[in-house]
Write the structure tokens for this entry.
Amino acid sequence: MHRRGVGAGAIAKKKLAEMSKQLETFKTHLEEFASKHKQEIRKNSQFRVQFQEMCATIGVDPLASGKGFWSEMLGVGDFYYELGVQIIEVCLALKHRNGGLITLDELHQRVLKGRGKFAQDVSQDDLVRAIKKLKAMGNGFGMIPVGGSYLVQSVPAELNMDHTVVLQLAEKKGYVTVSEIKESLKWETERAGHVLDHLLKEGLAWLDTQASGESQYWLPALFSELSSQDVTPEEANQMVP
Amino acid sequence: MDRFLWSSGLLEMNETLVIQQRGVRLYDGDEKAKLDVGVVLLSTHRLIWRDLKNHECCMAIPLSQIIFFEEQAAGIGKSAKIVIHLHPASPNKDPGPYQSSKFSYIKLSFKEHGQIEFYRRLSEEMTQKRWERTPVSQPIPTGTGSQAGRTRAVGIVGIERKLEEKRKEMDKNISEAFEDLSKLMEKAKEMVELSRSIASKIKEKQGDITEDETIRFKSYLLSMGIANPVTRETHGSGTHYHMQLARQLGDMLLAPLEERGGMMALTEVYCLVNRARGMELLSPEDLVNACKVFESLKLPLRLRVFDSGVMVVQLQSHSEEEMIASALDNVSEKGSLTSEEFAKLLGLSVLLAKERLLLAEKMGHLCRDDSVEGLRFYPNLF
């Protein structure tokens, strides 16, 4: 005989009802918390870090959806989603120059500038979290550790370990030469050439053949002096022979 | 330094000495005064300075002339200082060491330390303002606009006090906030555990839970921001919220898509939609999940993922074959095209132009010439 009403299905139904009730209770607690501390989250980046880490520890993603309680009641969502928009826009605006690679520092500076002086302060931690969320939309948003900070990648250019390591090598001076790669990384010329060619093709590196001595491969992402003289896409194209 | 008056340095009746400190040099603004190191004395009414060697050289400023003062930390080779900002001198003021000065502040440089205690005592005197209450036989000249000066001084010291209180209040608020946050997280944790036990029950007996209930469960998870532990999907990842969103997007994106050749990168859509909304923004995941249900809702849009990982929304009406055929036409007409050139031609973003060319190449209609000068596509004559 088939027993009904007993078994995992029924228990699940009961638990669902229980969850629904508990959700309402939780919502109330969250509302109370929000009424007292909503400002704290918006104004205090340290508090945001704590908040995010605690959420992560218990297995909750407060930024998963704009429809989530966290977003609706604490306003964390809008803060990060708007930041996401600003990050995308900055990366897009600079792509013709740096090929879709930008230091976290420069991104931070430009986002702050774009937000104006009356906007809330955003920290680099905030940027990192917003970028992590952007990954969901494809398009190759990623972060490459370089020289104690990060390079933010906003294009789907494939960058493997070899490319990354050359980027890290170039970080100190903003450029790198084949000899430097061979010496530091102990590669053969062909491997170095391969990697540099790829970076050139992807628009991440520019070739300076007029440098004294050896040709230099410059990474516009790594030097911000350029930010004072803006290079147009046409000029950028001309720099690669 | 032009606020100082020559003085005998003798205290008046009812004027009391509060503290004195040796080894103090005076500064006129940022410049050293043409005086030697001396002694500074603080009384209930005045700030007095006397040259150590030459006792005749003695000068004073009434405390009422002080607007506000602040500490300047010591540096390498530099003594700690107290910077004192002063009201302008009254035009009929008695003579002093300086006739005029371009600065409205002086500094006391504590070459033999003592600045901490002096600062503390000065703060006390400036707060208590005993000179107002204890008249002295010889009226001590006060600063110009003394009435206004007094209220201004009160204002500034008052503001400083308020700032300090606010700072303390903020610290208290933050620790309270952290405490409340911890309690909140405890409750959230219970919700997570409950959802996990429900998920495992659902997995066990999949048949006994209705479609509707599964959707309900998903929306609970969405509210809490808990990842869906049940990997089995019903229609896409949709909750009612996502379906509603998908319909809104269906309306909103038709015109922009037409303008952009029928295709937009998802990041572009994200910016467009959120800028339009202004608030109650969509999360990236909301957008992706909404796009995933386009097909099941029979909307004329599709989410598409290219090999490179680029995600786009494209108009259903723009068929693949049409796009590839027109790409081939364009390339043939021009002989060859790079992504940038193609993008310019069609008014597409370079990213999407490249994807289209790659697609045409994949289908065998185009072939590439890949060099350091760039990636160029030619009609495939093979």
Notes: Chain B touches chain A through 67 residues (CB under 8 Å). Chain B has a mean pLDDT of 82.
